[in-house]
Amino acid sequence: MSLLDLDALTVRRGQCPVVDGVSLTIEPGECVGLIGPNGAGKTTLMRAALGLQRHAGRSSLTELPASARARAAAWLPQAREIAWPVTVETLVALGRLPHDSRAGKLRSQAVDSALARMGLEAFRDRKATELSGGEQARVLIARALAQEAPLLIADEPIAGLDPAAQIATLRVFESLAAEGHAVLTSLHDLTLAARHCTRLLLLDRGRLAADGPPLEVLTEENLARVFHLRAHLLQTDNGPLLQPLDVLP
Ligand SMILES: Nc1ncnc2c1ncn2[C@@H]1O[C@H](COP(=O)(O)OP(=O)(O)OP(=O)(O)O)[C@@H](O)[C@H]1O
């Protein structure tokens, strides 16, 4: 059974569609990277799929009652403000709210596992507001993991993380997919997208310009047409490497 089904999803800002007739299905086991230039509509597409943005067309998630939707999909927004000086453990435990209204007061296996996956055990009793920006980002990812929803939708989750933390986070997403969950994540690092995603969606001015295995999406032609980028794609024993070289006119 699919975890997300979009049919002709469209979002208009004024007259202009910023998401334009997007149809796709996400199945358990997939780690799907959503790529496209700034302003292509990635955030808008994810928010509309979750029912957080007025839209036309259909998203299977929005057909669920709010409480069921909160158990069906975890959402990690791009904004990362942590307003309250609660401990890391308490903040991560808030991810359990869709399952238990006492979340935040109870120690749980899901919270322990989310902290361990994000390498945050040593931060458990620290105030979340007193961590660095990258550490706070990892705490917010852990909160989304603690939700243990079948589908995780994440908006630029690795922005601002150091290189090791970026790879470690994408490995967590891969392992979630391997366990039968699915991940939809927007990314700007095309090499990491190629190396860690099972499938890429390329968005171009709101339209789905390509959808498939990473190397079938990251073609010279797509990179030039959609990103205005000249890039060198190398196949190595350690997987693909994509080096952007120049901006095309
Ligand atoms: N609140 C808003 N009001 C009007 N237009 C908006 C609003 N938010 C976004 N837009 C426009 O919608 C389009 C898509 O924006 P969106 O944030 O979805 O892009 P994105 O692909 O996530 O970009 P980025 O990579 O820069 O985060 C852009 O042209 C943007 O200017």
UniProtKB/TrEMBL annotation:
One of its GO terms (molecular function) is ATP binding. Pfam families: ABC_tran. Gene3D superfamilies: P-loop containing nucleotide triphosphate hydrolases. Residues 4-230 form the ABC transporter domain. The keyword Nucleotide-binding applies. InterPro entries: AAA+_ATPase (IPR003593), ABC_transporter-like_ATP-bd (IPR003439), ABC_transporter-like_CS (IPR017871), P-loop_NTPase (IPR027417). Its EC number is 3.6.3.34. Keywords: ATP-binding, Hydrolase, Nucleotide-binding, Translocase, Transport. It comes from the Bacteria. SMART domains: AAA (SM00382). SUPFAM superfamilies: P-loop containing nucleoside triphosphate hydrolases (SSF52540). Part of the ABC transporter complex HmuTUV involved in hemin import. Responsible for energy coupling to the transport system. PANTHER family: HEMIN IMPORT ATP-BINDING PROTEIN HMUV (PTHR42794). This is Iron complex transport system ATP-binding protein.
